[in-house]
Structure formats: structure tokens, C-alpha cells
Design goal:
Aldehyde Dehydrogenase, Chain A, domain 1; binds manganese (II) ion; alpha/beta; Aldehyde Dehydrogenase, Chain A, domain 2; seven-stranded mixed β-sheet; binds nicotinamide-adenine-dinucleotide
């Protein structure tokens, strides 16, 4: 097997010597205000207590804007506005008309896609290539897709009368800010619910821009309310008595707290939490494509991806060839200015997150795993991390069990299909997995037996609004996307 996959082509090394000429995207298209207020009842309103938080550009550590911190009183006001928006407008409106509004949001987002992409990259640190080609187009598609469901609920759910729940509280993380807002808002609006949404404190910009797009789309007041702030704002929202549904994406720790907090209530809950996905490569896989898939799986968006392929299981017979090819490919990855269109790996989202990643790298070395990182030059300022891998990782080690949320890959080997299924399933998580093989029957067997919400075959990190996404075990429950994504917002 291994001989079939021996490459005779010398790998291209860009990391050390070669350089591309800079190809920076202009930041001129982004109109960033110095300060943002809260978006409540269709209007921008200052917070009751007047506090603001600063958001920086993690690639330069420079301040980007200030956003209001919503306290309990503001949460109360926003929930009341959402309730009024529900009773007065949204629940009375026909699905067809709701759909028109959602289409309008999608089209306005598309028109302003460049500005949204630049904002996403400046605020969060992800490469402009990704915000431009992945985050923003997918977010638009999500609105287009759910706009189409708004007037078809009775066909989607025959012989049942689906009713909205009322006011939904939605909390999003910093890794895909606008995309996660779209995943949450679009199905809620299509099913006739109104919303109070809180983005993450380090990356609120595109969600605030979305609020102005919603204003431009002339949605009735109170249908969508956007509150900025950190964990305290989020917890005030979760605890509010007039919330009917909570949709949360973020850490497992906060997800567990929300479960406890809502256990004695009738609030419906969906949770999208962490992951520790296995990317599994069999000896008959198309090796060069698999190397590309593994690189995409863990280094895409600096590894700030809940479904990141952060564990690689490679079949023993091809392990040494595969790991060498992987290292050669890693050497060509460009780390640096996220606004440069050549950049593969942008900035880590915050100093705290970089700290956490570095702690895991130190831990991996201490646990005795073999460490390798590319020799990419890092910028002087900002939060950056080289693409890193560990070999000789034990199944029981923390590197193989815990979510790192950074560009750090743990590599393990296996011999048989049964063995790798057991190992891949042996974590507290179950969000996604990847299988690389030439054999169709093996793909079906693996996707059936892997306890993961999504299993990609000979591909990784592919998303489509029509395809449901969500986890098993500590990765959470409920599905977002597709026809399945309508259910969490409906009662019968
Ligand atoms: P987090 O769970 O603290 O934050 C996610 C969102 O929840 C943010 O909007 C935050 O303000 C809010 N929040 C925080 N505490 C809250 C509370 N008590 N009640 C309600 N809302 C609250 O996650 P984080 O600190 O941004 O990241 C920590 C870890 O979470 C990461 O290292 C990673 O492991 C994981 N994470 C997972 C995802 C994912 O997509 N599943 C995304 C981001 C982070
Ligand atoms: Mn920021």
C-alpha cells in the first residue's frame, strides 16, 4: 500500500525561503463606528448603566470600536420589545410575508458582503480569504435557504399545525460570528419567533452591522434585538423569565451551566458545544487529497472550529509517509496578516485563547509526545501561533481528549477498522469526524458507527444550509441547518 502512495514530486517549500508579494485587502470598505449602542425595538439605544467594552483587532492589538454592555435592565427592555414584536407583528404575519423580509436581509447582506468580510477579519483575526469565500457567503445562503421555508411549514410538517414558541434568546461565539448569527436568526424568523441575540464580546462587529441591515430591511420593531456584552449579559438573558427558547453555541462549561439553570423551566434549549473530531486516514486513501483535508481540518480558521479535525488517526502502514507529507505541507503555510489574501493562518482571536493554546503545547511536550511546528515567521505584534503537530500521542493523554481550539494536531495510529472506531469514539465529545478511504462500504460502516453528528467522507469542513449540524454527548444537542433546524423553534 505504502509504495502506491510514494510521491516522486519534491514538495515546494515556501515557509523558510520563498515569499509572496503582499496582497492586502483594503480596509476602506468597512465603515466602523467609534461606538455602538444596543439595538432594541428597532432603534439604537444607549445602555441603562452606560458601560462599554473595547474590541481590538487581534492581529495588531489596536482598538477597533467600543460596544455597549447590556445589563439586566437592558435585557429586560429587549425581551419586552421582542414580546411586543411577536404579539403585534410577527406572529400575525403570513409565512409568505415573513419570507419576503428574510429574503430582503439575505440580499442586503450580499450587497454589503465585502464590508462584512473586512469587518469579520479585522475584528476576529481570521484570514480575509475565509471571511470572503466562506463565512459571509454561507451566512447569506443561510438566510436565503430559510426564507424559502417560511411559507412552506405546513408542507414540511404535514398534518400538524406548527406554531412559533415566542421569544428566543440566542448566544453566539467568536469563531464564526456572522455565520453563527445567521444559523440562529434565519430559522427563528422563518418559523415566526422573535429574537434577542448576544454576540461574543471580542467579535460583535458584524452582528452590529447585521442589526443595521435589519433596520434597512425595515423589519417590524422588536422582531430582532441585538445586545452586546460579555458572559454576564448572556447569563441575564438566559435567566430572564419571559424567554421561551435558548439557542447557545460556545464552550461546554457554559452549556452545562445553562442546562442547570433552565432545568426547572419550560425554556426549550439547543446547545452546540465543543468537539474533538477524529480525521481517520486509511492506507487506501488518496493520500495527497487526505493531507490537504487534514490541513484544512485543523488549520482552517486557526483551529478555532468546534468541528476541527484536531485528532488524526492514520493507519500504521502509511503513517511515516503521511506525516512527512503533512510536515512538508505545513512548511508552506503562511501565518500572518489576516487582511493579506495569501495568508493561510491568521491571528488567534485573543490573548487569553493564545495562552490556552500555548499551555496545551507545553503540556503535550511534558506528556512526552513528539512536537513539531513549522518555521513560519510570526509578526511582531498580535496573537499568532505556528501550525503545530504532535506524534506519539497516547489515547488517554489530554492532548487527545481535550478541546484545544487552536492550530494543534494530535496524531495517533491504528491498525484495524474496529480499533479506530473505538479510539475515535473514546472522548466526551461527538460533533464531527472525517474518513478517508477508497472503499465505499467502509465509508458507510464508519459513518454508522462513529458517534458524531457529521461524518465527512474524503472531504472535511464542508457546510451547506440544507444539511443539519449538531452533536452527540458533550458536544450538545439539537440540530441547526436543514429542515431539522426548524423543529427547535416550533411547538405543535
Ligand atoms: P464561552 O462559552 O465562554 O462564550 C460563548 C458565548 O457565551 C459568548 O457570547 C459569551 O459571552 C457567552 N457567555 C459566557 N458566559 C456565559 C454565561 N454564563 N451565560 C450565558 N452566556 C455566556 O466560550 P469562550 O470563552 O468564548 O471560549 C472558551 C472555549 O469555548 C473555547 O476555548 C472553545 O473550547 C469553546 N468554544 C466553542 C465554540 C463552538 O463553536 N462550539 C465556539 C467558541 C468557543
Ligand atoms: Mn475584536
Amino acid at each position: 500500500m505504502a509504495t502506491k502512495n510514494k510521491s516522486t514530486i519534491k514538495p515546494l517549500r515556501l515557509g523558510a525561503g520563498w515569499k509572496y508579494a503582499p496582497a492586502p485587502e483594503s480596509s476602506a470598505s468597512a465603515q466602523i463606528q467609534h461606538q455602538y449602542e444596543l439595538f432594541i425595538d428597532g432603534k439604537w439605544q444607549p445602555p441603562k448603566k452606560g458601560a462599554y467594552l473595547e474590541s481590538i483587532n487581534p492581529a495588531t492589538e489596536k482598538k477597533l470600536y467600543r460596544a455597549a454592555v447590556a445589563t439586566e435592565q437592558d435585557v429586560d427592555k429587549a425581551v419586552a420589545a421582542a414580546q411586543k414584536g411577536f404579539d403585534k407583528y410577527w406572529k400575525k404575519m403570513s409565512g409568505k410575508d415573513r419570507g419576503k423580509y428574510i429574503f430582503r436581509i439575505a440580499r442586503l447582506m450580499q450587497e454589503q458582503a465585502r464590508e462584512l468580510s473586512v469587518m469579520e477579519t479585522l475584528d476576529g483575526g481570521k484570514p480575509i480569504r475565509e471571511s470572503r469565500d466562506i463565512d459571509i457567503p454561507l451566512a447569506c445562503n443561510h438566510f436565503f435557504y430559510y426564507a424559502g421555508w417560511a411559507d412552506k411549514l405546513e408542507y414540511a410538517l404535514p398534518n400538524r399545525t406548527a406554531k412559533p414558541l415566542g421569544v428566543a434568546a440566542q448566544i453566539t461565539p467568536w469563531n464564526f460570528p456572522l455565520l453563527m448569527a445567521a444559523w440562529k436568526l434565519a430559522p427563528a424568523l422563518a418559523t415566526g419567533n422573535t429574537v434577542v441575540l448576544k454576540p461574543a464580546e471580542t467579535t460583535s462587529l458584524t452582528t452590529l452591522k447585521l442589526a443595521s441591515i435589519i433596520q434597512e430591511a425595515d423589519l417590524p420593531p422588536g422582531v430582532v434585538n441585538i445586545l452586546t456584552g460579555a458572559g454576564e449579559t448572556g447569563s441575564a438573558l438566559v435567566r430572564h423569565p419571559n424567554i421561551n427558547k435558548i439557542a447557545f453555541t460556545g464552550s461546554t462549561a457554559v452549556g452545562k451551566w445553562i442546562q442547570q439553570e433552565t432545568a426547572a423551566s419550560t425554556k426549550k434549549l439547543t446547545l452546540e458545544l465543543g468537539g474533538k473530531a477524529a480525521n481517520i486516514v486509511f492506507s487506501d486513501a488518496p493520500i495527497d487529497q487526505a493531507v490537504e483535508g487534514v490541513v484544512n481540518g485543523i488549520f482552517f480558521n486557526q483551529g478555532h472550529v468546534c468541528c476541527a479535525g484536531s485528532r488524526l488517526y492514520v493507519q500504521e502502514s502509511i503513517a511515516s509517509v503521511f506525516i512527512q507529507k503533512l510536515k512538508d505541507r505545513m512548511a508552506t503555510l503562511l501565518v500572518g496578516d489576516p487582511m493579506d489574501k495569501n495568508t493561510d493562518i491568521g491571528a488567534i482571536n485573543s490573548a487569553a485563547q493564545l495562552d490556552k493554546i500555548n499551555q496545551y503545547i507545553r503540556l503535550g511536550k511534558k506528556e512526552g509526545a513528539h512536537h513539531y511546528e513549522s518555521d513560519a515567521r510570526l509578526p511582531q505584534k498580535g496573537f499568532f501561533c505556528r501550525p503545530t503537530l504532535f506524534t506519539k500521542v497516547a489515547q488517554s493523554s489530554r492532548l487527545a481528549q481535550e478541546e484545544i481550539f487552536g492550530p494543534v494536531l494530535a496524531i495517533l495510529t491504528f491498525r484495524t477498522e474496529d480499533e479506530v472506531i473505538e479510539k475515535a469514539n473514546n472522548t466526551p465529545y461527538g460533533l464531527s469526524a472525517g474518513v478517508w478511504t477508497d472503499k465505499g462500504s467502509r465509508i458507510f460502516n464508519m459513518s454508522r458507527r462513529l458517534k458524531a453528528g457529521v461524518v465527512w467522507a474524503n472531504a472535511y469542513n464542508l457546510f451547506d444550509p440544507a444539511s443539519p449540524f449538531g452533536g452527540y454527548k458533550e458536544s450538545g444537542y439539537g440540530r441547526e441547518g436543514g429542515w431539522h433546524g426548524l423543529y427547535p423553534y416550533l411547538t405543535f
